[in-house]
Design a protein that fits this description.
Helix content is 47%, strand content 18%. By secondary structure, it is α/β, with parallel strands linked by helices. It has 2 domains: 2-201, 2-enoyl-CoA Hydratase, Chain A, domain 1; 205-252, Lyase 2-enoyl-coa Hydratase, Chain  A, domain 2 (Orthogonal Bundle). Helix 6 crosses helix 7 (156-165).
Amino acid sequence: MVPVADFDPSVTLTRDGRVAIITLNRSEHRNEINVDMSFDLADACLSAQQDDEIWAVLLTGSGDIFCAGSDESELASGWQEASALDRLRVCESVASIDKPVVAALNGDAIDQGLEIALACDLRVASSAASFGLTHLEKGFIPWDGGTQRLPRLIGTSRATEMILSSRILTSDEALDLGLVNLVTEPEDVVSRAIELASTIARHGPTANRYIKEAVMKGLDMTLEQGMRLEADLSFLLQSASDRAEGLASFLERRPPTYTGK
């Protein structure tokens, strides 16, 4: 892996081919999000977004926990202030990346940790990981997108029950609900996630971005509006050189050489 940048000590950014690997790096604090980490993660996401050599992104945690939530000391000192929560919010930085984002959930993803995972497009999970939004047990509600993204992923009824009961899911339960896409042994999580991200990165990056835009924006549209968006993006893709390369490589039965144009 090639180091791209080091937002030491809380977030690191490296590269494996066309895949940017962002790692939450506070394992001694269970990778809990504090203000410094939220800014560092936002910087890493922006770097991955702006790098034209990066065609897919992987987000994981150091140690054996993905992210146990928010730093409780910072929540205790300022959670009643809207500005304090704003400084801790990170999910929009992840969700705003227009390239496919794969979460390698190397361990538990609880509270804000799960909200971060929900902001990714695909999730590969450790068989030892647990998942939950337990905010109500602490006297508040999910505040980094959990009430919006979880129902869109697993359905309104299941999401509401999970949040209201503060239920903790095992990895197998998360897989059954569609919360994660794949469950694997703990030691294989990152390698399987890199394999998935690398497979995605072998496709045309423009087409990948258009697919993500069609799916994500279409969720907030009527079916008719979504079909129109899909048609518009398909039309735009016709003018991309990568589209011509993809067709030519298929007809010539050779691997495509995409340029991102």
